[in-house]
Every structure is written in structure tokens, then in C-alpha cells.
């Protein structure tokens, strides 16, 4: 299922609210773009060109495995805060069917309606957390975020979640909004042009070389030409490859995916979000920290 507005299929790391269903069609507002996230897991995908395994972090073994990997590169407070969110989510939606130990991975589909009902029964006024929130929780002490201007127009649901869930203090919330700000760009379908804009924007932040922020960047022209991080996760090296940790959406589960190479992870993201574009818009592209992953 996909949501379409102004010719662009969107969804990614937001949430279905205010009647903006993931399977609805037709023109939407700029807010609809970031508000319709649950299309992520059900996006049509090509046959995978990678060998990978995944887990929803729903077993003790998988949690201990990924926790140990993350603690190699991230501070304990951040990792503990992340797994607190993981455990809270998984305890509520466990009956919707989550993968425990690592298993072969190609693509995943989840019962979003069941998950949503389970979550709402426990948290009627708190939508939960999404990819950006969880990535910030993991990386906030690894990224140097300067005092810079922000454009948080597409982060209104993120900010509601942060406030309702009491997730961040004022300082962290402001840093979060600066890191995931909307970025002005040009009216072109040339990815090179947009990638340069994102490189310029992200160059003001100092990233970690081991725990890397991988971002799916989308082009939007509904309210001026702009770029924004529609999906994001954290990539860390292992003894024989890499693990990519992500929260698919506010409603959809956590995933930790083991890839043989980081290029395989790039391909996974490019394949998954390949059709989140439209007439007059550039194709989605991947940023690895502050560099375009060509």
C-alpha cells in the first residue's frame, strides 16, 4: 500500500493520523507527506540482491547479540535507552507476530492494523516512536550537533510524540529538530544536485565513523523545493559484515538486519524506497553520515 500526493508516493518514517490512511490515494498536503509512514513495510520490493538475516529483537538471544554489537561503538546510556523503547514496544505488540532470533531476510510485511489496535489499547494519546526518534536516541552522544537554524515543518508528528511520550528534554528536542531539518533545494530531478545539497547541510554535523547514520532522502515540491530524511537507521560493523538497526515506523516494528557489506544495506534501502518519487521529483537517495552513498 502506498500514499500518493502530487504524483509522489510517500510514507516512510511518520504515522497515519487524522484520517490520512496509508492506502488512500490522491493529492495530499505537505503534512500528509510526513504523516503517512506505515507504507514502509508493505512497499513493493524487487527480488533481493543481498544475503541477509533479520530479527525484530523479540528474543533474549537477539537482544543480547545486537546490544553487544551496539555497545562496542555507542555509550551505554544511549543503548540502554534504545532497548527500553524496544522492550516497551515489543511487549505490547508481541501477539502480532515478531521474529525472535535472526532468520533469513528478503522483505517483511506486518499486520499494521493489529499492531495499531494493540498499541492504542495501551497508549491512546501517545503514538510511539519512529525511525528518526530511535536513531537519535542511539546516536545523540556520537554526533556533534551545532547551534544552527532549523526547519521542522515536517517533524510535527515527531515533536508531538516527543512531547506526549516525554522522550527528550528541551535541549535534545532542539538538537533533534536541527539534525532532521528540511533542506531547501532546486527544481530538478538530478540526484547529484540534491545529494550535494544534503552533503552541504550534513557537513555541519560531526558523525561517528563506526556507528553510521544511514538516511533515505526524499525530494518534495509541495511547499517549495525541499529535501528531508524520510527514513533513517544506524549501521555498525561486525566481525563478518554489518548490522543495520531501524524502527520502520511509529506503528511498525524494530528490525536489526545483518548484511555482508554496507553496499548490500544501501541496496536494501534503495530497493525498498525506489518508488517514493513522482513527476518532477528526484529519486530517493542514500546518505551515509554526511556523504552521498552513490
Automatic annotation (TrEMBL):
It comes from the Bacteria. InterPro entries: DUF4300. It comes from Streptococcus zhangguiae. This is DUF4300 family protein. Residues 53-292 form the DUF4300 domain. Residues 1-24 form the signal peptide. The lineage of its organism: Bacteria, Bacillati, Bacillota, Bacilli, Lactobacillales. Pfam families: DUF4300. Keywords: Signal. The keyword Signal applies. The keyword Signal applies.
